[in-house]
């Protein structure tokens, strides 16, 4: 059963009422089609009102929904002949980062993305989607391979952040992330990144130095979680809702500031409601980006990426 978020309560209650009437109609051969139609119309209007006016904290909850589609879910729907590649050739394989080669519209591409689990067992295996250094080194290995063979790179961002544990620091977490930023900036193939859930801190940015950055409508992208920001600013993590509003971490805010290029619309209620339809929307965004970026040569791609990040923010003397 899907987790119900607080702001969805009126919708859930109305759906339950509709289901009760439908069951009563089926069991008693009573025609309540008129009443059911009226309630369905009311439900549609209510969904448009609630999902069309979500606050930043509401979007955070949707981005964290346990049933939200992951990188592997989208790979299954969007790409053909996916061959997953493992290991960083230095230490080991990190299950929090998945990557490999596939076909998109019949053309070879390299796919890299954060991967979290959907239950406790898988989350432990995937380290809750928080990569170790070997995960980022695996990602960089696949990016350099893609550049060697002229394949566009498509990244899916979905992590609370890089794993902050002692072992990760001992193996060079900061250096691994920093190297990815530098190397991605100079890649001479198209790079498209899509934030599909949470995009947290440098752990997300390590896959985010792209020519085009897109975000799902209810995803978040920030330097820190709202709880972390609230703890630092006000010494109280319970003020996360206020922090989420102040941090400007939602897709509309980031689009307005020029940090992302495009907002990918989500199906009503969030991507988890219909992953297949959501994949169609993501596919359109990827296709549109690759059509534009294929017109640029290697030098132009690097310049395009540089100017994109150079233009973020306001400079004053």
Automatic annotation (TrEMBL):
One of its GO terms (molecular function) is acetyl-CoA carboxylase activity. Pfam families: ACCA. Pathway: Lipid metabolism; malonyl-CoA biosynthesis; malonyl-CoA from acetyl-CoA: step 1/1. Keywords: ATP-binding, Cytoplasm, Fatty acid biosynthesis, Fatty acid metabolism, Ligase, Lipid biosynthesis, Lipid metabolism, Nucleotide-binding, Transferase. Component of the acetyl coenzyme A carboxylase (ACC) complex. First, biotin carboxylase catalyzes the carboxylation of biotin on its carrier protein (BCCP) and then the CO(2) group is transferred by the carboxyltransferase to acetyl-CoA to form malonyl-CoA. Acetyl-CoA carboxylase is a heterohexamer composed of biotin carboxyl carrier protein (AccB), biotin carboxylase (AccC) and two subunits each of ACCase subunit alpha (AccA) and ACCase subunit beta (AccD). Belongs to the AccA family. NCBIfam families: accA, AccA_sub, PRK05724.1. This is Acetyl-coenzyme A carboxylase carboxyl transferase subunit alpha.
